[in-house]
């Protein structure tokens, strides 16, 4: 059985869920309610679809558990679709164009819209990944390029002058890119300085910790493993209660482009 039961055999998670879905505005999706999907060309991969245009997002996020020998060797993205993969845990061999790269935990690869992203798990354990795709918004004179990195090798920068909030930019901040991935880390008691209200969208995966997130003026408890979609103009801010770890999340943000 893949769900928890009480002593009478009754499913304990049937009576309530922390999930909140306000289409086009925001969604909090805790791990309990997620389901696995089978998708073409993702062989031996357990796929979970998160944000999609049906929710109001201009991008698609997924969780992808790559079983040993599994992967996507056909190619994900391309033809105007840029892609990104983040290795949450484990090892993965990624190929973009002619070149191959080994990702370990914290490693990531950005694949420009002119190429496809291929990956394979050559290890003997499952590899947990987070995947993203979005149509690239062209701007004359600019073109994005492949980026490979590992967040464990990167220093936190002070976020908006706060010493207890750290920021990592995973992609270059130049105009060749129409989006970026970041990691924000709030130490115990730290918070945003104000409630953001902006046009840009986010898909955020909580990597560690716990806290309270203001989503459109609903203060919602959140913790490691939760996924949050924040649509355009969704009011947003959080603070960390960080009893065991800082509140840290990986998130995407569109940037550097005028409105169509
Ligand atoms: O970059 C951002 O907009 C980010 N500070 N938003 C967020 O954390 N909800
Ligand atoms: Mn924001």
TrEMBL record:
Keywords: Hydrolase
Keyword ATP-binding: no
GO molecular function: ureidoglycine aminohydrolase activity
Recorded superkingdom: Bacteria
InterPro entries linked: Cupin_2 (IPR013096), RmlC-like_jellyroll (IPR014710), RmlC_Cupin_sf (IPR011051), UGHY (IPR017627), UGlyAH_cupin_C (IPR044697), UGlyAH_cupin_N (IPR044704)
Location of the Cupin type-2 domain: 83-128
Protein name listed in UniProt: (S)-ureidoglycine aminohydrolase
Classification lineage: Bacteria, Bacillati, Bacillota, Bacilli, Lactobacillales
